[in-house]
Amino acid sequence: MESTDRPHEQYTSIAKFGLFVETDEGSSVTYDSAIQGFDKTLTPLQYSLGFKISRLAFDDDRLGALKNMASDLGWSWTESRNILSADVINNGYSGALTGPDGVVLFSTAHLREDGVTFRNRLATDADFSHTSLRTAFVDFRNFRDGRGKRLNLKPEAIMSPPDNWFDIAEVLQSTDKSDTANRATNVSKSFFEGGVLRQLPPNDYITDTDSWVLVGPKEDHGLIFLEREKFTVETDVDFDTRTLKTAAWGRFDVDWVNNGVGIFASAGA
Fold first, then answer.
1. How confident is the model at residue 84 (pLDDT cuts 50, 70, 90)?
2. How many domains are there within the chain?
3. Cβ distance 130 to 172 under 8 Å?
4. Residue 18 belongs to what domain range?
5. Cα four-point dihedral sign 49, 55, 57, 61
6. Coil, strand or helix: which one is 51?
7. Angstrom distance (rounded) from CA 233 to CA 131
8. Span 160-188, pLDDT tens digits
9. Eight-state DSSP code of residue 163
10. Among residues 140, 133, 142, which one has the least CA distance to residue 187?
11. 228 and 251 Cβ atoms separated by less than 8 Å
């Protein structure tokens, strides 16, 4: 999570330099120029909710249900943030929500700063398995910067809904391969036990029940929760009607600010 004191925050990518060039004795150095990349502007939005209750009802509340209503605003706030945060993933396969390079979060047609296309989604969506994990892992390792240099990224975590969480756990943690009756060693387990790839707790807010997402280092995947104003609760009284008013609000934006590098997904079969 990042915070800001501005109404807008702009993120711009830049592709710096390519590879070194062989130079003959006495020849001039080859000079390179950086390439301006993609722009993304985030605008935190305000979200609010409140309730009103008469002072008489509040004073006569023997069971305490009305007195606890303010604390329930915090629960509603957390639920709202979780839903909006997951929407970035849920809308990542199709729709109008596009990133700096003009395509959805998970795409086979992402664009680098030098104009070359790449993918951060399986060419043919597939359920999580030894085979699909291997393909995704290779593609993840092939992520490059805007000048074609390898980024040498590796996935650190896998995110999924509860519906396929146990299936993924079997692939990652079984001693033998779970897709064959032969006593074949499950090499995926070494990634899990060695700390290369950890399975996140089930994400209850992902709506595609057979989807899965590989997530890279925080500084590389581009996903961002930008907070402008923290969750705030205030209470006031309408003296004419003796009505107690409680309101809560906050301002934030959830998005991604790169061209899809550092995250890889499949919508499932």
1. very high
2. 1
3. no
4. 2-266
5. positive
6. strand
7. 50
8. 999 999 999 988 887 666 666 565 666 66
9. G
10. 133
11. yes
